[in-house]
Amino acid sequence: MTLDPPVLTDTVTINYSVDLRLVSDIVGVPIDEMMALNPSVLRMDTPPDASFDLHLPAGTATLFSQRIAQIPEARRTAWRYHHVAAEDTLASVAHEYHVTEVDLAAANQLRESESLQGVAGLVVPEAPAAAMPAHVVLYTARRGDTLVTIADRFGVSLNELRRWNKITGIKVPPGTRVHVAEPSQVWHASRSHRRVASPGTGVKTHTTSLEKGPRESPSHRTARKTTGGSNSRPTVQKRSGSKAKTGTKKKSR
User: Fold this and answer.
1) Is 105 found in the same domain as 54?
2) Domain containing 145 — which CATH number?
3) pTM of the model
4) CA–CA separation, 41 vs 228, rounded Å?
5) Are residues 56 and 14 in contact, defined by beta-carbon separation less than 8 angstroms?
6) Cα–Cα distance for residue pair 139/226, rounded to 1 Å
7) Residue 202's domain spans which residues?
8) Could you read off the pLDDT of 31-71 as tens digits, one per residue?
């Protein structure tokens, strides 16, 4: 039996929470590798306010320490890091991460019109919350997709994708239809509706009848109100000047 060679890693002890996707960006390795090196991190973020041994690919500890210092500690669970390519511009990077050029330039202390020539990397601020579309949006997963890559592509969080699709891990088989926006809730009500005016407001609201049964005609409702109910007896009145009482005569056999 031939044993696999041991995995060489660097270990950095941190006392703040950081997203493994940010660590993946900084050291330049796939997110799957970072998760494999740190299997105790189940929700992508390291524990807050606690000492934690973060395992990194061998030879990347110094690089990580230098680049993580560029990001405020309170933003290390939301911000990202982008390695600048030759064709990159502030506009293209902002579009890729769903942020504005103004916010991207401010986070890196650059002017909006400034070139990225000579810039090795950019810190990327958190994207604003995306407005929910009016209809449900589905994405068909392709080979190599994970919930992490899909979340990045559509500008939503990993936790939202997990909640909307009831998925606990990050693996998505090819061909799976994934909700990339919150599914709309469809409420079914009975067909009987009436309008009721709210007291003192004059605003009419819809109410739904929860009881089943035959509908009462307007004439029956009027008669019931006049007689005091469907089961009450009619009122017997005395005719003035008459000794006889008005009543119901018994029918002789």
Assistant:
1) yes
2) 3.10.350.10
3) 0.55
4) 71
5) no
6) 63
7) 130-207
8) 888 988 999 887 788 988 889 999 999 999 999 999 999 99
